[in-house]
Amino acid sequence: MRRQLLAACFLGLAGTAGHAACDTGLAERMHAKLHPKRVLDHERAVCEPWRGLPGRYIVVLPMPEAGGDPDTTRFDLDVLVVQQADNGNTERTKIVSRLLDEGALTEDAIRIAEIRVDTTRYTLAPDARAFGLRVLYQGSSRANPYARETLTLYLPQGQKLAKVLDQLETTLERGEWDTNCTGTFEATRGALSVMRATSNGLADLTLRRTRSGSRATLQGDECITQERPATFSATVLRYDGTIYRMPRRAARD
């Protein structure tokens, strides 16, 4: 049993995906209003209350693009901030901010397992509060387990949404093993925080990452796991007036 669970236990991110669809029907109503001729990926559509802002919702409409490579699917994302009427009248739902993000996501051998809204208080300036969109990708190979999560930040600017951070990789978990015992596994997990310092009008961000790994070998009838010491790093991301950029050296690490 230990051999069978070895990869699954290490790749914890792969087990976190859940059903992200909008159960209220708000996503479907917005899709019917804005894109009546396009296909909506209902399973991965999202609507989430924006905590701290009464009646305000974040809606994400993933729509696969037609044609192209049969082994690859590109998705347009219509990302909306909407205001629900106080009386619950869905016909009076108002779009506050919006970005149609064409070709935002690509799915190939690594599938998109989940899209979810991150409503952490990303207060980038006194009058600028962003929200996040996290996308979980998963591989299908048992011998080469793989999972990664990215974070994109959207900032309302009047009727428009600005994408100020584009698919920052916050988590990467992967491994290679013989599906019995012997193999190696590694994980990088990151957390993003807002700093007091600013660049070009928006707060700097700090990405703190922890890297860990292990090696498993079969010794007699026992599967022995050796953990590598964890390493830690911190990287500052600064806004360049358009987007937050990862320093080149940190991006290569």
Question: What is the topology?
Answer:
Layout: H1 2-10, H2 26-34, E1 46-49, E2 56-64, E3 73-83, E4 94-107, E5 111-125, E6 128-138, E7 146-157, E8 160-177, E9 183-199, E10 202-219, E11 222-239, E12 244-245, H3 248-252
Antiparallel strand pairs: 1-2, 2-3, 3-4, 5-6, 6-7, 7-8, 8-9, 9-10, 10-11, 11-12
Briefly say what this structure is.
By secondary structure, the chain is mainly beta. Helix content is 9%, strand content 59%.
The biggest beta sheet, please? Answer: 8 strands, antiparallel
> What structural class do you assign from the helix and strand content?
mainly beta
Task: Please write the string of helix (H) and strand (E) elements.
Answer: HHEEEEEEEEEEEEH
- Enumerate how many helices there are, as a single number: 3
Which range best describes the helical content: under 10%, 10-25%, 25-40%, 40-55%, 55-70% or over 70%? under 10%
Report the β-strand fraction as a percent range.
over 45%
Distance between the termini: 35 Å
Mean pLDDT: 88
Radius of gyration: 20 Å
Low-confidence stretches: 1-6, 15-20
Strand tally: 12
Strand order of the largest sheet: 5-6-7-8-9-10-11-12
Judging from the principal axes of the Cα atoms, what is the shape? globular
